[in-house]
Design a protein that fits this description.
This protein is mostly helical. α7 packs antiparallel against α8 and α9 runs antiparallel to α10. The chain has 14 helices and no strands. It is about 75% helix and about 0% strand.
Length: about 300
């Protein structure tokens, strides 16, 4: 059996294992699924405390999706209290990671790090490697936000190390993060290598959101390399995926990417059309950050158009 066939069998088995795990796992995560191997033949009977914790976690997720981060934080914190009260290690880790994600959205890096560190540094509770990987992944993103790229790279590698010999569905996301870090450091070749690795892994796990992210990162590198036709095809592929998923913020980024290709080639009228589409998408999603970004780009286009006869 050749290596490719063996890798295909391993990947197929991982996907089957994931589907089994998802069947018996009751809490959906905001950013990633931190699942533990080992399923039983029938779902366990949940106690009142378990059910209440699940309910609160779901309420937190609903609030998060609506952008009500303070309310999401409240529900996740209440769910965390219940998790501690019954010493449900899996649920403790999930709620801590969810809280770290919310704190990051609220630009509260101190508390976000604190939540991740409760998993990474604790000596009282032994967490599964996939949960340790998730905490390290959060810390890598936080350091990237803080422009501490060396620290971010170190934590990204640490997140990957926990995936060795373990079921770790976040591996493709970690490679996407490493690709983004390489891009920020100006290492375009590494960005493409890591992005391609992430793309392969995310396709294998059928993580369509992260597949689009992988493609977009590669496109971002291609556009800097002035490989405009390749970049445009990649952005269009990402746009198609993001439309199917319905991710407005990502759709706007794809449109801006295509618009920027035209802008760099001084095709300002074509660029303006894509920037205006990105504005409308952001406006419809009530995404103030996206509206501001698109508005700035539209204004730049208009200024350049005025300079041309």
């Amino acid at each position: 059996m050749n290596n490719r066939s063996q890798e295909s069998r391993v990947r197929s088995q991982k996907i089957k294992n994931r589907n089994l795990l998802l069947t018996f796992y009751y809490i959906s995560l905001t950013i990633c699924c931190l699942l533990i191997a080992g399923c039983v033949s029938t779902p366990p009977v949940l106690s009142d405390s378990h059910q209440k914790g699940i309910y609160l976690n779901q309420k937190g997720e609903d609030a998060f999706k609506k952008g009500d981060y303070n309310r999401a934080l409240y529900f996740y914190n209440e769910a965390l209290k219940i998790s501690h009260s019954i010493e449900n290690t899996d649920s403790i880790a999930i709620n801590l990671i969810n809280m770290a994600i919310v704190y990051r959205k609220l630009n509260d890096a101190t508390n976000a790090h604190k939540c991740a560190d409760e998993i990474s540094n604790t000596s009282n509770i032994e967490y599964h490697p996939s949960q340790l990987s998730g905490a390290a992944f959060i810390k890598a993103m936080l350091y990237m936000d803080e422009k501490k790229y060396t620290d971010a790279e170190e934590w990204a590698d640490k997140a990957l190390s926990f995936c060795e010999n373990n079921e770790c569905l976040t591996e493709g996301r970690i490679y996407n993060l490493k690709a983004r870090l390489a891009l920020l450091n100006g290492d375009l070749n590494s960005a493409i290598i890591y992005g391609t690795k992430g793309l392969d892994l995310n396709k294998g796990y059928k993580d369509h959101k992260e597949v689009a992210n992988s493609i977009r990162i590669i496109a971002d590198a291609k556009i800097i390399m002035n490989k405009y036709e390749e970049a445009k095809r990649l952005y269009e592929d990402a746009l198609s995926l993001d439309k199917n998923i319905g991710l407005s913020k990502k759709i706007a980024l794809d449109l801006i990417g295509i618009g920027t290709i035209y802008f760099k080639q001084e095709m300002f009228e074509d660029a303006l059309k894509y920037y205006q589409r990105a504005f409308l998408v952001s406006e419809g999603a009530e995404d103030q950050e996206g509206i501001s970004r698109a508005t700035d780009l539209i204004n730049k286009c208009m200024e350049n158009l005025k300079s041309f006869p």
